[in-house]
């Protein structure tokens, strides 16, 4: 049971007479009822309240559940005087004057009761408004949703205040907090939902409120109920705080676990090394040789050699059969073609801009195209290429292309990383890890949301043997699947 449902159960137990023990010494609710009726008659005779049409007695068919013998089912209008408020807008608020409560504040600022107000109004306005006295209930009888309509607070201040429109002021001789807890119980809420009217604005009329039935306990038992509910609600508050901490911890765990998995992977701590694997140094030599062949064949351009990795640059130790390399040494990297947007067409090769992809794939909205020329050949995307955003608020986002459904070319500021001989998914996991993301974030801050092509080429990559790359990718895939399931649960 969640905390919200626990609160509901506590309140319902309270108004069913199941929360505290009955005491045969308590004056019964029927006597309390008679006293209230007599008191109302006196007020009518004194001209303080108007005489109203008698309400029908509560019938057996209306009673939803059994209550203790010392309790009594009554109608709200029988034992309370309900007045409708009017006037008081937010424009009527002043820095000082007569304390007031606006109906909107009941929804936003107050819980069950208050002894202070957060706003005031002038005497000129206040003298025209309905007065609220100690223990009166202020009920917001309009709302934009069904749950909030009839939200109520008890005024427990030792001075009178005023309230305005969209409220009902409920005057009574009952424990005010018992009434508040009643109004939050299923007993009241079910009846309220039946009498509320409206679509965009939900409203409950004062006349309809008067007919709502509720269980009236002896006055002494009301006090015991309120005391018990107060304690239990305080415990619920603590449970809620702990639940929020736990949810926050769960979210932190779910959000950060994938990062930890990737970091362990690129440090060589996720899977066991195998001495039978061909070491990364041999793999590296093969890659360098392959790149030279491609340059000689004119398939890729010759570039200025990158400096070797120095000991000062190495962020952590890696297994002996791994090797620190630069991304530009093991991949072909370009920064996209400088397309002119005025030449975009409805037909032609699809152009991939920084807004056209995310971590999940390509975004098939607002697609732009360009007439193909052979100048675009080095920017054409292929399956297993990695693209990386070099500018803007999403700088550093990347995508490993699993499928190509049509010819595509990258726009400027979208870097393409083309890899051969290495497990592309492993390199993508390195890019997603804190090792590379921290570099991106650091440069992003210093260059106003930009990273250079040179920075990408200089990325340090911990290169494992090819066989180990395969084992790492398999293990990371498996663990990230569990992480996604965990997020769904949370």
From TrEMBL:
Gene3D superfamilies xref list: DNA methylase specificity domains
Ranges in a coiled coil: none
Keywords annotated in UniProt: DNA-binding, Restriction system
GO molecular-function term, one example from the UniProt record: DNA binding
The UniProt record lists the keyword DNA-binding: yes
GO biological process, one term: DNA restriction-modification system
Similarity remark: Belongs to the type-I restriction system S methylase family.
Full protein name: Uncharacterized protein
Organism of this sequence: Mucispirillum schaedleri ASF457
